[in-house]
Amino acid sequence: MVTLVTDARRQVPSTDVVLADPRLADAQGRLGRTLVRDAVHRAQQQARDGKIGPAEVADAAVAELPALASTLTPVLNATGILLHTNLGRAPLSAAARDALATAAGCTDLEYDLATGQRGKRGAAMLAALARAVPEAQAVHVVNNNAAALVLAATALASGREIVVSRGELIEIGDGFRLPELLASTGAVIREVGTTNRTTVADYAEAIGPATGFVLKVHPSNYKITGFTASAPIAGLAGLDAPVIGDIGSGLLTAHPALPDEPDASTWLRDGAALVTASADKLLGGPQAGLLLGRADLVARLARHPLARALRVDKLTVAALEATLAGPRPPVQRALRASGLADRAQRVAGVLADRGLRAWPVPTQAAVGGGGAPGLPLASAAISVPAELAAPLRSGRQVRAGTHPAVVGRVSDGRLLLDLFAIDPDDDDVLAAAVLAAATPG
Fold this sequence. Notes:
There is one protein chain. This protein is an alpha/beta fold. It folds into three domains: about 10-65, no CATH class; about 75-90 and about 335-440, Aspartate Aminotransferase, domain 1; about 95-330, Aspartate Aminotransferase, domain 2 (3-Layer(aba) Sandwich), CATH 3.40.640.10. It contains 20 helices and 15 strands. It has helices at about 10, 15-20, 20-30, 35-50, 55-65, 95-105, 125-130, 145-155, 180-185, 200-205, 235, 265-270, 295-300, 305-310, 315-325, 330-335, 340-355, 390-395, 395-400, 425-440, and strands spanning about 75, 110, 115-120, 140, 160-165, 190, 210-215, 245-250, 275-280, 290-295, 360-365, 375-385, 405, 410, 415-420. The strands form four sheets. A seven-stranded mixed beta sheet has the order 4-10-9-8-7-5-6, sandwiched between helices. Strands 11-12-15-14 form a four-stranded antiparallel beta sheet. It has a two-stranded parallel ribbon with strand order 1-13. A hairpin with a 4-residue loop joins strand 2 and strand 3. The longest helix has 16 residues, at about 35-50. The radius of gyration is 27 Å and the shape is globular.
């Protein structure tokens, strides 16, 4: 008796046959042929491995399809860190998101519709920024705060000295160090003072004919305590050199919840010639670097050849204008939020009613993202089993796009889902995501 062994690979339907399935044909128009074809190939491999039958390949391919053509996954930030750099820092307001959708097509970015002539790029955005910081004589925007410092150093201090305190030669994210960033522009770093104490006199002794400017940096991602001293902007402004202040965190005006966080308006009033800041931190907008200050310096920077390489695109122009002119963005709403304990109680109750071991707990949140280091912010979280951390981050419901990923923090064997950075409108979304992650199968 002869037994015939059928090669499983011959039974797997061809790629073209699977792609002809109406669901996959429709998906090609939404996601593109490459992503759909890759999903089909993964499903075919499952059939060759004997995990599914040949007739199930199309169904498996549909299940493999990503929710979007982009690999970026929507995330609910339940870490308790308001500006989480790894999660994209500030979430945009609904107004900014709508502006992005409009800007995605053709717009009057550099066109005057009334005259039919070339218009000023981002004029309304710059006007909105100027209104937000009336202490600034002029404003300019580049693609991030590091770019703002690079442009200032290149235009004002290339081949000259930048006088800066040793205690403010910071390292920012991903290992980038401020001294190396500034030195790359051709400027010479003139260090003054010590790590913990620098006075106005230290700066004054270093200023001379070779000085390009004095740089005052807010050490936004660490805090030195004890026997310390630092020179205030008002003291530095009386020296014989322009003062550039890097506030970093993007706070444009003083905020009652952040009493020790410097803001652009105050530093400009105190005499800073130029202030740089990030737009995607406490301002709550898209990634951008803000340059605010004296009209002559801003004009010099804006017309420097490097400014072209650092300019923002139409999406940033739209989102930043909407952030400045529109309703208060999520980051600023979070800093004024109340009722967090009541929200945690309600969400925990929803989960407990479905049989999950969940309860509310008081927590302490933080600004993060280079803002208000060491400042605890009262918050509340929902405590759930720690084994839900992984499926909430990358479970099947996340891959299918039916629920956003949820990132919390594990503490004392429990997963804490902090509500500080979560919009109240997303409380039900959070509860549904947790229940989906807890459902087997």
